[in-house]
Structure formats: structure tokens, C-alpha cells
Amino acid sequence: MSTPRPLEGKVALITGAAGAIGTATARLMHQRGALLALVDIADADFGDLAELDGVRTFTADVTDPEEVAAYVRNAHEAFGRIDIFFNNAGIEGPVKPIQDYPLEDFRKVFAVNVDGVFLGLKYVLPIMLEQGWGSVINSSSVAGLSGAPGMAGYNASKHAVLGLTRVAALEVAAKGVRVNCVNPGPIHSRMMDSLDDSAGTSEDKRDKSVPAGRYGRPEEVASLVAFLASDDAEYINGAFHTVDGALHVST
After folding, report:
1. DSSP secondary structure, 52-92, as one string
2. What is the pTM of this model?
3. 205 falls in which pLDDT band (50, 70, 90)?
4. Do 228 and 135 touch, CB atoms closer than 8 A?
5. What phi and psi, each to the nearest 5 degrees, are found at residue 240?
6. What are the strands of the beta sheet with 55-59, ordered from one edge?
7. Distance, CA of 5 to CA of 29 (rounded, Å)
8. How high is the pLDDT of residue 250?
9. Could you give the CA distance from residue 222 to residue 229 in angstroms, rounded to a whole number?
10. Catalytic residue among 71, 101, 123, 154
11. What letter would DSSP give residue 3?
């Protein structure tokens, strides 16, 4: 039986592509037929993704307008269009109460998680609007739906991503472009390990913190992103979608 390829020939631009969720999403989209423009910071390891047919890699600082404009321009020039944009780059920042949270760290988290998402939208949307089609998926988090002690920068930034998603969707909905966001819960990744280590969370306590009894896999987020990118989701716009083992229901 042949593997379904609902993204056959589509061009997907992915930021934060060397991270756990970015890599899993890139791999799945490639399996489903997409051509890939992968973006991450200098020295990021794209692994074997960089060797696949139909894949181009680019380095960029998503907080720098000139570098964002460049990665978008380079991706467009390489493939001739951008059908899918997974606006995924993000960082977690420190785990500290607000009174101890350094302003420098707060601004850095916002620069990557909010400015980076905003700039991606700013430079990708004109291409999609000119095409008359496109699907954008922004990365938020369940932290964008509730509070978490010690995570002022991350929580506030992920709430902001949800707001940007809603504004962008309203601005482009009548022009054939969709903008949604995904809100993962705890997912096995370097970021989650870092947060758990900072909070002193044991492995047993990690699993018990989620109603499903386990952390999610990057591939489970990738499946949701790939669906939202596909034509099967063509009437889904301006929405947030959790993939979190019912965590947001319990908070």
C-alpha cells in the first residue's frame, strides 16, 4: 500500500526546524510529499534532513528583520512559492518568580517567541496573499492558555502568539490564506527537559502532571501541524489546537 501524500508538491517553510517538533514536522511533511525550506540558527544541526531530495536549509536569527526577510526571500526564490509556513522557532527562558526574573531574559524570550512570529508573518503573508492561498501554523503552547509559576516570559509570549494568530487570520481570511496555531503540552524534547530540570521535576512527577499519564511525542504535534497545512483543513482558520493529553482541561 502506498503512503498517502496529501502535501505532494507543496512548499513548506519551517522555522526552528532543527528542534524536536520542527524536525518531526519536517520529516512527516517530506514523507507526505512536501518540498522543504528549513530555517534555524547558525550551527544548528539539521541531521539527515539536509540530505533529502527537495530540501533546502537556511540559517537566520528570527529576531532580526533583515535575516527574516532574507530567509523568506531565499525560500521563495528556491521554490517559486510558499504554500505552508510553520512559524515554529521559540525558546523557554529561565524559571524564576517575577521579582527575580531578569528583564534581559524577559526581553530575549519575547524577541524570539513574539517578534520572531510577527516578523515571519510580516514577510510571508505578502507572498501568500499574492498567490491567493497559503496555510500558516504558529507555535504557541498550553502555556498560552493558562498560567504557570516561574514562567513569566514564556507564558506571556505564548499568549501573545495566540493574539497574533487571531489578528492575522481576520486580516487574510477573505483572501485565501489561513492562520492557525498549535498549543502543545509537555512534549519530550530538549526544551521540556530544561524546564523540568530547572523546576526540579522528577520523571514520575512529570507523567502524573498530565491526565493522559505521559508526555507527548514530537511526532504527535507534527501530525496536527501537517493536517492544518493540508487542504483537508481548508475551512479551519483563526483557531488554536491543543495536543496535550487533556492538560489544558485540567488547569
Report:
1. STTEEEEE--TT-HHHHHHHHHHHHHHHS---EEEE-----
2. 0.94
3. low
4. yes
5. -110, 150
6. 55-59, 35-40, 11-15, 84-87, 134-139, 177-184, 240-243
7. 9
8. 66
9. 10
10. 154
11. P
Cell numbers of 155, please?
507564558
What letter would DSSP give residue 176?
T
Question: Residue 34 contacts by C-beta under 8 Å, 6 or more apart in sequence?
Answer: 7, 8, 9, 10, 11, 12, 54, 84, 229
* Spatial separation of the C-alpha atoms in residues 167 and 169, rounded to whole Å: 6
Say whether pLDDT at 6 is over 80. yes
Lookup: cell for 64: 532580526
Cβ pair 140, 162 in contact under 8 A: yes
- Number of other residues whose CB lies within 10 A of the CB of residue 179: 28
Q: Is the pLDDT of residue 2 over 90?
A: no
- Is residue 154 part of the annotated active site? The answer reads yes
Q: Which residue has the cell 522528577?
A: 202
How many CB atoms within 10 Å of residue 250? 11
Instruction: Give the tens place of pLDDT for each residue, 128-181.
Output: 999 999 999 999 999 999 998 999 999 999 999 999 999 999 999 999 999 999
Contact 26, 250 (CB under 8 A): no
Q: Which residue, chain included where needed, has cell 520529516?
A: 27
Residue ranges and CATH numbers for the domains of the chain are 11-186+217-243 (3.40.50.720)
d(CA 34, CA 144): 29
Among the residue ranges 18-22, 196-200, 237-241, the one predicted with the least confidence is: 196-200
User: By the 8 A CB rule, do 247 and 241 touch?
Assistant: no
